[in-house]
Fold these 2 entries.
Entry 1:
Amino acid sequence: MIRQIALAGALAGSMVLPAFAAQEETASDPVTSFTLDNGMQVVVIEDHRAPVVEHMVWYKIGSADEPVGSSGVAHFLEHLMFKDTDNMKSGELSATVAANGGQDNAFTSYDYTAYFQRVAADRLGLMMKMEADRMTHLRLTEDDIATERDVILEERNMRTDNNPRALFTEQMNAVQYLNHRYGVPVIGWKHEMEELDRADALSFYHTYYAPNNAVLVVAGDVSPDQVKTLANQYYGVIPANKNLPPRIRAQEPPQIAARRLTYKDARVAQPYVSRSYLAPERNHDDQKTAAALYLLAQILGGGQTSYLAQKLQFDSRVAVYSGAFYDGVSLDETTFNVAVVPVDGVSLADAEAALDEALAQFMQDGVDPEQLDRIKLQLRAAQIYERDNVGGIANRYGQALTTSLTVEDVQAWPEVLQSITADDIMAAAAQVLRPEPSVTGWLMRGEAPEGAQVQPVAQLPIQQEVTQ
Amino acid sequence: MIRQIALAGALAGSMVLPAFAAQEETASDPVTSFTLDNGMQVVVIEDHRAPVVEHMVWYKIGSADEPVGSSGVAHFLEHLMFKDTDNMKSGELSATVAANGGQDNAFTSYDYTAYFQRVAADRLGLMMKMEADRMTHLRLTEDDIATERDVILEERNMRTDNNPRALFTEQMNAVQYLNHRYGVPVIGWKHEMEELDRADALSFYHTYYAPNNAVLVVAGDVSPDQVKTLANQYYGVIPANKNLPPRIRAQEPPQIAARRLTYKDARVAQPYVSRSYLAPERNHDDQKTAAALYLLAQILGGGQTSYLAQKLQFDSRVAVYSGAFYDGVSLDETTFNVAVVPVDGVSLADAEAALDEALAQFMQDGVDPEQLDRIKLQLRAAQIYERDNVGGIANRYGQALTTSLTVEDVQAWPEVLQSITADDIMAAAAQVLRPEPSVTGWLMRGEAPEGAQVQPVAQLPIQQEVTQ
């Protein structure tokens, strides 16, 4: 089993997607959607250029829905879903996919857990048969639990505990969220992962894995009618869980005190300043503020021609890198992030001061209309190129439909982006770029803790990408 | 209903008790303890100097046991416990106590909720009858809920939202705890209090209000036999709740990144620096580290002759006040706190630098043996004086028995304190006074937020005391 992408959310904190990922298809997308009688939503994206299909099942359940004290159970269950079912042996699903020339994997984030296979289009029924089987017929032995708990602990060790940037991001998130579960890492706190047991996994499974809590996304060389027939045959026969709990989460209180943190680690190769601001997310029929923030991130920190790059990398030359990030696909309040990596010899204090000066100057200068037009044009172009990536489109619909957005919201997004004015962007900037809802972090080179074996850590890019 | 003390925990964050409260009686205490057949623990403290009795029922349930999203429900239920029961009208219990010349009240903290009456000793049976009645026969109307929810919201408004120090402390706690529920205020987050309903209150009541989750403490002019007879008559007939859930809470991950926060408020009369360090609590049969921390707080910040007062108030004269606080009576990890109030004209940055310098100097100087001897002698004296305060003794046993300590632990505490050496104290200081598990806060005078009506706020002492 490959699990490369399972931890993208955990590593990146509020998951930072590649820039193009926020572009959506226009209303002319070849997208069809419907709902089975048992409540399972279905989205079909037609693309007949190659006889291939991507089959995904997304559950509206993620780490932010976990019971208190059981952090990591959503991701743990994702691993366990490859074990024995009533009809398949452990590993049989992936082996069958591979034997049919395909690939499969799964991933977990704050708001969703998803399973997918990419295979020849005529194997779609077989994929559904296996996926439907493990939706209800999972068997878990104590041996599975013990083995797979070791696997996720080693995953945490490798991806988080051996990575100062991941530890730093984890602490930043924990301080950003005072009440909401987004402050707890997707992979889980180690001391809680160690206690996860069979009862935890099965309780999570039986509560949340049901067709009325799932979205089926099929993309590729298929017709909606074919998908409907197969979906009814394999998924339609599974009864809805009538006891599915409402998805209610603890929300943030007003964030009234600016926070800071310092994380020192002997393994840090490149110190930097990171800042996150609590920010609104994309909501159903209400995406304008999020669109303004998305454009703000592009203007401030989207590449070499961005405002921060000009100020910090070219004018004052205090930084080797600067960036701004905002995704917005999130069930609850998300973050707007900026980062500055200073040049050798510039302190983090000076880098932060330069960042603050640049942001203050931006609030005075306002949006350069030519830059905004250029970015909007680039977005239009990116949307067109994006149509070539049917897997990317499938991901976007899956993410959207598990975070309270609709097919219509996804289709409206490109026009919402185009409709945003310079004034909208400055209003969103004034709303979000305030000290009170912010956390400023310094990742610093520190002394090795006593007795610690310091291993060199490979340098990772600051902007974590989903490595699908 | 008076509810002065209900919010002590919420206001003070990790509740800072007056210095004498940590002294316990010696093994010669006139204390008897036993358990009823239904699991209710009973502690009797004899004091025959006056024909008066203090009757307390402590539930092993507090705000840190609340369901996610329902912050404030423990305290809300405390209020509602004065409403109609099957056998009493709303307010009847307090009216009956008053008509009998007594007083009654209740209070809620992170780890416990307690109800008490002080009356003539011959009214003990009547008190038990009423208290036992509301343990199981509470009735709640929608009208009670609406009325009392407004009361707790107004309480929060008055005690927290109109008090910059309380807001500051609330934010400090939220940033201190990354995972544990001690980061959520006892009174609750306002947006969650607004949503508390009858089902929340009744669910909490039916789950946790039961004799096997309660401790009866009776102090005063009674004999253990009298108490046993009455307790069996009134409480012994109530069946145990066999579905009482185990008291399992989410614990902290390693705290690896020093945190800071700044809270600015136009109503701040006196800016100051506050720092809290995550610290071990008193545990059953394991009180030495807590005792060392208790003595450390006395040495560093217990009055005018303390180390910080000497350094900051008398030598460098940067501070008008300095203090160190540690209680240790807590079910889970608690905090060790220091605070410095600078003199006019000294910045918070300079005050903090002076604090850090003084703490570093203390780590080099070590404990002054004469100061330690003097403090131990004062503790011995305080213990003796404390015997006069039977209510204080009752409180100490109630707090201890609801935070996993035993009668034996309480009785051992004075000797544990006396056994602590200078080396023990320096080891505890080295363990706790580190940047990584700390939060440093600046309470600053700020601009009034737009549209806000700024009301002058009465100056409160930094060290909040329980105003029982």
Note: The longest helix of chain A spans residues 142-161.
Entry 2:
Amino acid sequence: MKKSVYILLLAMCCHFNSIAQNVGDELNLMPWPQKVALGEGRLLLTKDFSLSITGEFDTRIYEYSNRFLRRLDGRTGLFFNQGMISKNTNFSKNAILKINIERPGKIQLHEDESYELKVSESEIILKAITDLGAMHGLETLLQLQSTTASNFYFPVVVVEDAPRFPWRGLMIDVSRHFQPVEVIKRNLDAMAAVKMNLFHWHLSDDQGFRVEILKHPKLTSLGSDGNYYTQAQIKEVVAYASDRGIQVVPEIDVPGHASALLTAYPELSSIDRENSIERNAGIFDPTLDPTNKKTYKLLADIFAELATLFPSPYVHIGGDENEGKDWDENEDIQEFMLKNDLKSNHDLQTYFNIKLQKILAKSDKVMIGWEEILTPIIPTSAIIHSWRGVNEGVPAKQSLVDAVKNKNQAILSNGYYIDLMYSVEDHYAVDPMPEVALTEEEKNRILGGEATMWSELVTPNSIDSRIWPRTAAISERFWSPKNIVDMESMHRRLGIISYQLEELGLKHISNRDVVLRNITNNQSIYSLKVLSNICEPLKGYTRNKDGVEYQMYSPFTLFADACVADAADKRKFKRAVANYVSDNSNTEELSKILHVWIVQNEAFLSLNKNPKLNSIAPLYQNLTTVSKVLLAAITTNTFNVQDKDVLRAALVRMQEANEVDVEFAIVEDLVVLAEFVSQMKEIQPIENK
Amino acid sequence: MKKSVYILLLAMCCHFNSIAQNVGDELNLMPWPQKVALGEGRLLLTKDFSLSITGEFDTRIYEYSNRFLRRLDGRTGLFFNQGMISKNTNFSKNAILKINIERPGKIQLHEDESYELKVSESEIILKAITDLGAMHGLETLLQLQSTTASNFYFPVVVVEDAPRFPWRGLMIDVSRHFQPVEVIKRNLDAMAAVKMNLFHWHLSDDQGFRVEILKHPKLTSLGSDGNYYTQAQIKEVVAYASDRGIQVVPEIDVPGHASALLTAYPELSSIDRENSIERNAGIFDPTLDPTNKKTYKLLADIFAELATLFPSPYVHIGGDENEGKDWDENEDIQEFMLKNDLKSNHDLQTYFNIKLQKILAKSDKVMIGWEEILTPIIPTSAIIHSWRGVNEGVPAKQSLVDAVKNKNQAILSNGYYIDLMYSVEDHYAVDPMPEVALTEEEKNRILGGEATMWSELVTPNSIDSRIWPRTAAISERFWSPKNIVDMESMHRRLGIISYQLEELGLKHISNRDVVLRNITNNQSIYSLKVLSNICEPLKGYTRNKDGVEYQMYSPFTLFADACVADAADKRKFKRAVANYVSDNSNTEELSKILHVWIVQNEAFLSLNKNPKLNSIAPLYQNLTTVSKVLLAAITTNTFNVQDKDVLRAALVRMQEANEVDVEFAIVEDLVVLAEFVSQMKEIQPIENK
């Protein structure tokens, strides 16, 4: 460990990336930087670690640096001498970490977010055009920190980094289940940690109108069950986001998805009906009347107040899933359409959208809407939010392509619907750039993408485990070079990021235990945890059948709520099966796993029973039955013919729907294994065994 | 299970209580009610469970009932049909739980908080004078809910309940370590769950001034490191508390403990000195100048704004630990004292306090102060907060007695300093009523008590595990009959309450795992958890020696931060040792425990090392050494003389101070065991063993 040698990478992009993925085997960065050159040597962390900041910048970097120091100190327990940093701090010229910033960054799209990081054995230089870039650099540094038996250190390294897409968003729906300020704040922390820069706040829907509008208090007094953000809280969140380099875009979903709004203002409904806050999930009829001038008056008032709360130039108006049933049934509306030459409901909605666009333009706001707002006559200033795909009967990214060809800018969410409970691999494989040929100009209109967390099935207690760590992989898709696609590397790094997110305050790990303790009624959760690590919640909206099995106030303290989309032990089992099938002397790992399942079912059965536990018992029973047969076969290299039917029946039951809303993540590999052992030499049952 | 039979208890108080403690073996209530009569039979919970509310009441009971329903539904997973309750709800006459309230309760001392609860096999009647009483009844009902293998149910029971003391408080110091709104809110939830009704908010101290004062923004811009509550947040917390029947009393600690305030306003210091926010713990010199008129002007401004934020009639002015050093050194102040016939610093402080009392009286506020404000001439309207005791060189409760004899009302905190990390048994044993003879009038002046959570050594991540579940036992001391004192019963019920507090959102259990994952650097925490369950943080301010080992920004992610004052496995081990010593054939339980410690040290040693883990290794090593010797002796009923010195040396090391700020909670019982086995038949070492 003498003087460091930088292995600078000057290769072609493609070549570079393949190296990057190799480097990835040593470093735990996510999103992966544009360029990384790992050197030799280490900078050891001691109590004397300190930082200095020079240049011109927004003062928020002081607080960011304080948090950086405290996070690093909390992780290492070194008791750094450097205390609280503020504008009055006289920085030492001998600081280990020297941060230099050229100018204050603006919280806006296309702002410079690049940074350069050079770690040598004696110092760290972090250079950035803006303080936003410097924040990203500090996060990279925290991810670079490594640990040995005797030291905490930073590896000698050079990083040059900047995002691939300017719009790297996370949407959180706070209508279906209200999410208190603390939930939003900790998710903003996590976003900053993985270099996301846009929080899309879905503030209204059928199940609740969640933002205080001073001029229209009825919106929340009648439309929110008392669960809404005061304007002071909105400002608090916007400031919190801004301090972390994150822009906040509000959404008021109209003209459909408006049951809550129309509960407060039934006179603006397209049909004379007594509206109420919706308790189920789905698509509902209540729709704003686009022929009523008061509709625009109310929306103008709402948008005017939002403009005072959200500095972002963007306002999302929703516009999705309006089936127009109420419009069809209202004769006045039909007459209005005839008179105004509006041939379809879609035309009428475009008429509505264009009026909204003009209202927004008055306060210099740019309209965003879900892809349904895209028509040839929608102004090209509107941003199109592409969300539909194969599940909705249209090709993926079709609206994205249509939009940019129509000269609109666009962002992608199809493929990033994290509420669907699909594997992170599915999301990671989706690139925001369509596969079809586009001009450079058209490509530039694709701003990036957004992970969308719809909240029909999540509470403040479970939402973190639905968003994280998966969204870190999606963020990598938005930030990193296109060909950073190695799944193994992604999984390895994601596991470490997940733990670092907990360190930062996210509850995606610890809150699962809270649910399991609830289910066991305060007994040992270990056996249930083992089961939860191979089960995944039902996927693709098959949980909550037809939207009416659960109501928004239903309990979400069930086994499925303690399971996550990527079951922790799924890949370990897949590997063990593959290793065994390729060489049947590799029994150790596989036997161990099967043995644990059998033993933990015994532990599970020894718990004091209760109705919630009872509902899980059949799952464990089937797992144990299968495990016992397979373990016997693997151990003896023979297959007891008597077990054939037992095995088949139990496997079928494992594949079937069950009442606790989960599926086994290991069934596929169990089937592989079952087929393999069924080829073994058969033995006959021993009598009276 | 036919018709229920109420076994009504009409016995004398004393007799009644002894029965109560027996009943306590079946019910999990805390605080224990004034009267409980357990009947026969059960009311089974089904999907159809519903409630109705009749009478006159504050509308907050709707939200409280909603939370009650959702908590019960979350616990049972039954999917209750009854949805959200509001003033528009038409309650069914067939509701299972019928709540009747006579009038809206006021959030004030001595308000009626009583309730009566009658559970039969078919319905539950909850009657209360005020909605505050009804809330307490709902909490009792949640604690009554029980579980069998096939059902969730309420036992048939009659409860008549009301608090013993009107002032049942928890103080949280948010100056030493700032605690965000979410931390305060979840602690208010917990307070309501255990029927506490007063939150004392220690808002200023040497380490930070934490409340926005619009007229004096410097107080927070210079005195808080940016960590303070906006007035909007204060109002939000006060409303949140009020919705849970809790009064909020603010404290601005003066004239000492004022470094942060004097950092903003150095011109009000008693000594011309450059003040700064204090980073250490202790008693510091900066003190307000009581001879400066501007001091009173500033305080009048502060108290005037507080009066708009806090509806409570009480304001706490601190007044503790002013050593008056700065006063001694200021000649002008000395002259002022001479001129005004103030013979001591205590006289000068009383002069200051009386001026404050007049300022507060202008906005109809009553002054509370720590016991140092008590002098013969302090107005009898002032409430005395008794905190000193044997540790401070005075008899416990002396100031409490002095206060009520002086015709002042008083509350007790000596004995309830939960930051000292003493056992819950110590706190539970302290009664607010002094042992000396007092008249009825004097007794009535003792309003109750407060648990005090000073925050030098806690962060938002660890504070819950310092407050809970212990404070539930202190609440029982304030609420329940004086002779509810059975330690075994308390421990048993506290374990269940602890779990229910986690269900409610408290982090005292799950956040310990977060610290352990940090220490292991994301490896299995099980072995460390086993160790943490027999270790306790150093007690009585011996952690953070002289207040300078830690600064307020130091890492609190150490092993001690994952340990709690009442180590989970301490009592289990004590029992096992006692059982064995009384009959040495009782080896099973004891051997099992010792074996686990030995095995888990192996697991601990197999973890990838890091400096934080290394610092813990000697603890585990000593434990294992002792455990091996003892296990061998217990197993063979002989004692290997060669082990004598090994055992003694390891035990001594276990008793010594160590670098990770914890002590073994099991040492006393290990010594008992060591003495016992040393009486066994000695055997000689086997050569070359």
Note: Confidence is low (pLDDT under 50) at residues 1-24 of chain A.
